[in-house]
Amino acid sequence: MSAPWIYVALGLALFLAVILPPVLDRWRVNAPMVLVTLGLIVGLLPGFRDLDLDPVAHGAAITHITEFTVLVSLMGVGLALDRPLSFRDWGSWRSWSPTWRLLGIAMPLTIAGVALLAWGPFGVAAPAALLLGAALAPTDPVLASDVQVGGPNAADTADGEEEQVDEEDEVRFALTSEAGLNDGLAFPFVHAAILLATVGAFSQWGAHWVAWEGIGKIALGVAVGVAIGWAVTRLAFTARSEDLRFAATGEPLVAIAALLATYGAAEVVGGYGFLAVFTCAMAIRSFERAHSYHHDMHEVIERLERLLTLVVLLFLGMALTNGLLANLDWQGVTLSLALLLVIRPLAGMASFIGHRRQRGVQGFDKRERVVAAFFGVRGIGSLFYLAYAATHADFPEVRWLWSVVAFTVVVSVYLHGFTAPWAMAWQERGEQARRRADART
Known about the structure:
The chain is mostly helical. The protein has a single domain, classed as Up-down Bundle (Na+/H+ antiporter like fold), CATH 1.20.1530. 69% of the residues lie in helices and 1% in strands. It has 17 helices and two strands. It has helices at 3-24, 31-42, 59-80, 90-95, 97-119, 126-135, 170-185, 187-198, 206-238, 246-249, 254-269, 273-285, 293-324, 330-351, 366-374, 380-390, 398-440, and strands at 155-156, 162-163. Strand 1 (155-156) and strand 2 (162-163) form a beta hairpin. It starts with a helix and ends with a helix.
């Protein structure tokens, strides 16, 4: 495909990124659904039919594009969360209980469920089965914006106290914070699939994998993120020179600079860059929480994230009508639907057994558990992990994997996009009924 057609597609995505959100607010439709649908149609038009979107041939390019999209998303999620997390405050760790449950229980169960179903009944080779489970593990609430928290919501109340608008919305907080962390925590399992394909049996690399991939690189990523986030906040908020005090001037591009510097530094020292970027955003968000500068940074990140996400989805839709699903079979369809409708919901429900909210707030009721468990939205992270693994090891099933992962992402976009407004309204009605019952007692 010639360069002019690429500019046409990119310009269309940018234009739609600007006009779609306010237009779609009045309907129960979100922008990702529209962009995927538009991509499906555009891919059939003359001039676009010959577009070479083969993910195997362009694995490196897809890796870098989806990688940057995920990084921007992680920065936005970290800046959006209002709930603090302090290393020295056990109470704050307990308040993140929904997140730890989804990460420590739901994600491993989801990886295991997908991998075992692919490897056992469907006879997929172990490395490819594990890669499929790991690639489909990360969630992405950006593609179902109705179930995530909004931007930084801390504001000064009339009496000077800090108000946390999203503080009690446990479901939105759980889904958003889960997406912020599991994009990085899925990496060890992707590396395990690569090692299984390149080195061999687990006994040959298992101990090193646990120590380095499972512990060392996570610790390094978190440390780099905290260090750079701390340095950015001191510079932006408390620098002696007013010219360097970016919070006072409201320069939002510092968020992008921090993103790039953090990811690069983490990768240089061998840590997980995804975790570093999210941790950096959390560290920045923890300083002067009520300051409007957090909103300024989040706004520029959100705009960039929206553009990148819609561009990727537009091209994904075009690829679907240009042969990306050519290797999809009934086993792939079954795996995809089983993940979205059975494995993730059951794993999510299992993770919330016995959950109790902290600080006097009641635990998840039945509606909240169902919504939090069901909305394991698959998105750009799944595309990145598959592209990354495919460029680091030889998987004979790679084209089948691409068909299954792409199909899963698109089904997730439509399934979760259509159901999110209804599900959140259903949950909120239950919350209102519970509050009225509590008021009467």
